[in-house]
Amino acid sequence: MTLVRLDEVLQDARQTRRGVGAFNVIQVEHAEALVAAAERTDLPVVLQISENAVRYHGSLAPIALATRTIAERSNASCILHLDHATSEPLVDEAVALGFTSVMFDGSRLDDEANRSVTRAVTQRCHAAGVSVEAELGEVGGKDGVHAPGVRTDPDAAAKFVADTQVDALAVAVGSSHAMTRRTAKLDLNLVAAIRDRVPVPLVLHGSSGVPDDQLAAAVRSGMTKINIATHLNKVFTDAVREHLAGHPDNVDTRKYFAHGRSAVTEEAARLLELIALRGVA
Ligand code: G3H
Ligand code: ZN
Q1: Does pLDDT of 152 surpass 90?
Q2: Of 41, 189, 205, 281, which is least surrounded by CB within 10 A?
């Protein structure tokens, strides 16, 4: 199966008021688990590698090529996506490595710089057949920006998309990055208002803190790409912790990583179906 483009998958989902799961890959086991979930549910999955994960590994290529190979050898529809990239050279490297989409995160730049750099990155990526997601107002949880007060203005969002021609837009509607408890309360009326003004699919960042019913409601209100990282990391870690507690003499990483991997497959499959509103009244 070849990798698929973000813009095509998201536009189709937006038309049918469905959501698409976008889950972060840090270790190879994440990629194996997420692709297995996509195969099991026959739903597309966005495999996203963040700039922070690149810093952890020291470079992009090893984890990117491993993830790309796992995706290409599966029969699932996978998007290979660079997440929260602030570095233009890293974006260019991802394009060269065969990523099918990137998120250029200019949210910490001033407004004019964000627009101009995002526009330039989008032009380069589009010329290479790569989709672009961008961010207008910073979603909370990064550098102390406290999300609950941060909200994206629908008119500002529409102008940003017109100015930059991005394929998807991350918006601030009440979620916050890196929450370990699912207690966030989204502004669903704002999601609907932005969706009515913005012609491209919307992206919910920091979705680990959003409970199931709010995720489904956000998709129904107009959210399309649902980003989850911390929650799946917690699932992985809890499974590893439980196995190690019961097997204190185990020193074989394969034994406990396998438990983490299968726990993530189960939860990712459940989330893919929830986000796609499959079986959700
Ligand atoms: O871009 C990635 C997501 O926004 C991850 O956020 O770890 O809070 O789920 P999360
Ligand atoms: Zn994010």
Answers
A1: yes
A2: 281
